[in-house]
Amino acid sequence: MEQSLIERIGVILTITYLRYFVIAGILFLIFYVLFKKKWQSKKIQNRFPKNKDYNREIGYSILSLFIFMLVGLVAHKSPIAQWSLRYDSIAEYGTAYWFLSVILMIFLHDTYFYWTHRAMHHPKIYRSFHKVHHQSTNPSPWAAFAFHPLEAVVEAGIIFPIIFLIPHHFSAVFAFLIFMTVYNVYGHLGYEIFPKGFNKNRIGKWLNTSVSHNAHHAQFNGNLGLYFLFWDRWMGTLRTDYDSGFKEVDQLRTSSKAIQ
């Protein structure tokens, strides 16, 4: 029996909220509860947010994810869905393409995020779109989707270029959403989990890090990327103190190990 619209919304919301609360919740439990005192010296910003900050981040994230669900319904269930490049059988394009499609979604999203994020920092629209997210000057994992509703619509809009430009299986989109959530939560973690000197190696030079995004929240400018640093490096928006900031965090982690 085909699901009713209400049932479909309930299923999508449940999956969406589970994705956020499980991933952000596990990392929050590890870094902010179980090992809070033991690992505090490794934290990018030594202080912790207050409970009111966590509550604000969770509240806005719940609202944002509801908006994500609504935008997703428009993309997949409205008349415009007829132009989607979705296919029903993985065998139609093959397993190799399935993985390639996820990679294409990630790169497309990074480009979309960089330019929309940069636009939302324009003084004329910053307060209406992006200021809410920057209330988290010392972000926690819960801040991953703490957007103003207008920004949530913009962020959710990535679904349209994905479904109209990339032939995709629904499971590939779901895999992309899991990756997006994990990396977004990591970016707001407040701790760096990549190894010492990662920002200087061939791969790390091009990957965004928690150190990078934390500096963006603390300083309100530069470091605009999501997954990668390509656009930041090409467009000159990578903060000049990024490498020194990563080195400081490395020193914190090294001194913490020595004390232990």
| Mean pLDDT value | 94
| Counted beta strands | 0
Total helical elements: 11
**Distance between the first and last residues' Cα:** 59 Å
Class per helix and strand makeup: mainly alpha
Order of helices and strands: HHHHHHHHHHH
Strand content: under 5%
Number of domains: 1
Helix content: 55-70%
For the biggest sheet, the summary is: none
Q: Show unreliable segments.
A: none
What is the overall silhouette? globular
Rg is: 19 Å
Report on this model:
The protein is mostly helical. The chain is built from 11 helices and no strands.
Features:
mainly alpha; 11 helices; 0% strand
Draw up the topology in text.
Layout: H1 5-34, H2 36-39, H3 51-77, H4 95-120, H5 126-129, H6 149-156, H7 159-165, H8 170-187, H9 210-219, H10 230-235, H11 242-259
In short:
By secondary structure, this protein is mainly alpha-helical.
